[in-house]
Design goal:
The chain has about 300 residues and is α+β, with helices and mostly antiparallel strands. It is built from 13 helices and 8 strands. It has a 5-stranded antiparallel β-sheet with strand order 2-1-8-7-6.
Length: about 300
């Protein structure tokens, strides 16, 4: 299969979708991003890299960071995190308070905001600096030592992060945070504000397509842990549109409101797409269309 020609074709095929939806203007720095951009990268299990469109433009990875924080916690702490976070789809918006209250402060899964705050809290306890731990993993897996937090985006998020603060204080009131709320929220904002390209993200995600094998040739996760992260990505990675994403794309995936999505074809490749215009559930309109096109044309799907 000529992957490069395929990606070039996909860039053309998704142009009608580029610019559709709305940028995440509730975070002022993200609201200023030009929606008429699209990039896609594929990294094979063997490390071959293919890119097209705006694949080398940096963007804010936002909730995609949750995958890497979870991987670090599982690698360091085993399954203990599952005593504090469930693994079920939420069916509600990613920043919902309602479900958290009805379920006594145990978030439904690690990819909604409440669950990710709990994971970040645990990573903070394990490492002393959760944001740096995620950043360092990204640098290690991409080979790009310039990967870092965009401080303007982090400050923009903290200035408007009232809903996340509410979630964190509720979690603390239920005894489900180990660290001070302000420290957890600061770490969470900084990991979400990492600036990366499509190519960076596809490289960083490759271990999930390789049974946990990292760029250095050592296991970041066991094959069983890798399988489980991919499973949670499939069922929970695109918020309350996970069923639609599974129907259209058929791969484990994780989206972010910066317009990025990563997806995994187990034992074949990792994929990253980016286009800032978001649909109702906070997923990139053009990004989902591109992944649909990719899996339809290749036949690569977990189904």
């Amino acid at each position: 299969m000529d992957i490069q020609n395929l990606l070039d074709d996909i860039v053309g095929a998704v142009q009608p979708h580029v610019g559709q939806g709305n940028v995440a203007d509730y975070i002022p720095q993200l609201g200023a991003v030009d929606a008429h951009q699209f990039g896609i990268s594929v990294v094979t299990r063997d490390g071959e890299v293919f890119s097209a469109g705006d694949a080398h433009v940096e963007f804010s990875i936002q909730s995609i960071s949750k995958v890497f924080a979870l991987a670090l916690v599982l690698a360091a702490d085993g399954d203990r995190i599952w005593n504090r976070v469930f693994r079920e789809p939420s069916g509600n918006p990613f920043n919902s308070l309602v479900q958290l209250e009805s379920e006594d402060g145990i978030p439904r899964n690690p990819f909604i905001n409440a669950g990710a705050i709990v994971v970040t809290d645990r990573l903070l306890s394990l490492t002393g600096n959760a944001a740096h731990a995620v950043r360092d993993l990204m640098r290690q897996e991409t080979g790009n030592t310039s990967v870092d937090t965009d401080q303007r985006v982090a400050s923009s998020e903290m200035g408007k992060g009232h809903r996340n603060a509410s979630l964190a204080h509720f979690l603390a009131s239920c005894g489900n945070l180990e660290n001070p709320v302000d420290e957890v929220l600061d770490s969470y904002a900084k990991q979400c504000a990492l600036a990366m390209t499509c190519e960076d993200l596809a490289l960083a995600t490759r271990f999930l397509a390789s049974n946990g094998l990292g760029a250095a040739g050592t296991l970041l996760l066991s094959p069983a842990q890798t399988k489980r992260i991919n499973a949670v990505m499939l069922t929970c990675g695109t918020y309350d549109a996970a069923g639609e994403f599974a129907y259209r794309v058929g791969l484990p995936g994780k989206s972010g409101v910066g317009g990025g999505i990563v997806a995994v074809v187990p034992n074949k490749c990792s994929i990253s797409v980016w286009s800032p215009g978001l649909g109702r559930s906070g997923n990139s309109v053009a990004g989902v269309a591109a992944l649909d096109e990719f899996t339809t044309r290749t036949g690569w799907s977990v189904f």
